[in-house]
Amino acid sequence: MAFRGLHDADPLDPSVVLLQDRHRSHFVDIEQLQDVLRPRQQMRAFLSMWRMDPRIRPYVIRVGFYGIYRLGYIIIDWPLITCLVERWRLETHTFHVSFGEMTITLQDVAIILGLCIDGPAVTRACMVDVAELCGELLGVTPPADALRGLTISIRWLCQQLSTPGPDADEVALERSAHDFILALMGSFLFSDKKGVHLWSLERLHVGRPDFGRSVPFAAPPLPHALHDDDVDGVVAEGMVDGLLVQHDVQPEAGAEVEPEPALPLGCRWRVPLTRVLNPSDVLLLYRDQLDAQTSDQVLWQSYVGEVVDRLPDICLAAQDIWRTMSPLICFKIVVKWHRPERVLRQFGMHQEIPLPCSYEHQLHRVDARGQHQPDWATYHAPYIALWDSRSVRVITLPPLVGMMDSQDPYMQWHRRITRRFMTPQLHRDDMRFHTTAGSMNVMITAM
């Protein structure tokens, strides 16, 4: 086995992680990055400004967005997210840990968020008449100060459109449900400090929900207790500063209320964040713990048994494409590859050395600045064609029996092609948390 210097954590074989000299882990190594990332969040503001009217709740349930709403605002552990970002590799679209790769799969999206993962790619030209589109789907044209380019202010949406009138007919309620889903998409799924992107509105226009049709994913009422998210009438819940806040929106007397559907797995994480007995510099702790983690400490298959028995049908739909090797297209500017062939242990299969990934540099150069007119369906046509044929590129390999041996060909290959440890190996700061994984690796390597 090739010898790696005690101070050299970079890969021995640079053929896979081509961007190591620009990767965040490189700057961690020279101690230039010690700050915690804190990405933007809009969900808390959305929940504080907009309460779901009980009359639009059935529409939101039927089109599959109720699970996202009930998931609400979750307290994020930003130091942990920062450590995961340090291990994310753009070249492979996976997290690189010391014993292999992991990633977020379509299975995770379906089970944790309760979103439909199958269907045609939603993209087309961005040539939009703002007034006409908003008038059709929202029933009102936003003022100039509520628009920034092709984004609409979430605050304006909440203030102007959140409550349908007391005598609203079915058309008005459907339009109000459109408004609610649009704001939900802009605050949770596609958060942007400028507001809701009009391409989200285009999504509702292209794939318009048929509110009059009961979708096949509608779940029966739960036979068991809902624990911390019990619903009395209609309850909209959110997490604000670690406290569970309930906005009780009671239906009118005698009004028919649809039963509360089963909720996606992510709703179980709606709890306060605590770091009992952790050191003050939790970022260093998390780095060290991830460096020291071993394969047998990972729950590779999280969705089995009782966990899936209580999920709604939408979470378990389209299982045949959970392992598709296909591009995922976010309307116009984002195309990301779904790489289950690199994380087969997450599906209970034996991991083999994957084929090389093509780092498509041109995809990562596309951004939204000034891109208001292109026909994105034509621009991304090759990737749309690949997504349309997703069912023919489903990876299947023999099941994994037990744990992978450390001398398995894949494990030996992985140790050569990536940076496995984030903390500098001889890291020692006075009066601070002292990491141990790097020192342990030094001793093992030197033996």
Q: How would you describe this protein?
A:
- This protein is α+β, with helices and mostly antiparallel strands.
- Helix content is 30%, strand content 8%.
- It contains 16 helices and 10 strands.
- It has helices at residues 24-29, 43-49, 57-62, 66-71, 78-87, 106-113, 130-137, 154-161, 170-189, 198-206, 282-292, 306-309, 376-379, 381-388, 409-417, 437-446; strands at residues 88-89, 94-97, 100-102, 147-148, 151-152, 196-197, 235-240, 243-248, 327-330, 334-337.
- A 3-stranded antiparallel β-sheet has the order 1-2-3. A 3-stranded antiparallel β-sheet has the order 4-5-6.
- A hairpin with a 4-residue loop joins strand 1 (88-89) and strand 2 (94-97).
- Helix 7 (130-137) packs across helix 10 (198-206).
- The chain is globular and about 70 Å long.
- The chain starts with 23 loop residues before the first helix and ends with a helix.
Write the layout of secondary structure elements.
Blueprint: H1 24-29, H2 43-49, H3 57-62, H4 66-71, H5 78-87, E1 88-89, E2 94-97, E3 100-102, H6 106-113, H7 130-137, E4 147-148, E5 151-152, H8 154-161, H9 170-189, E6 196-197, H10 198-206, E7 235-240, E8 243-248, H11 282-292, H12 306-309, E9 327-330, E10 334-337, H13 376-379, H14 381-388, H15 409-417, H16 437-446
Antiparallel strand pairs: 1-2, 2-3, 4-5, 5-6, 7-8, 9-10
Helix pairs in contact: 2-9, 5-11, 7-10, 8-9
Keywords:
single chain, 447 residues, alpha+beta, three-stranded antiparallel beta sheet, 16 helices, 10 strands
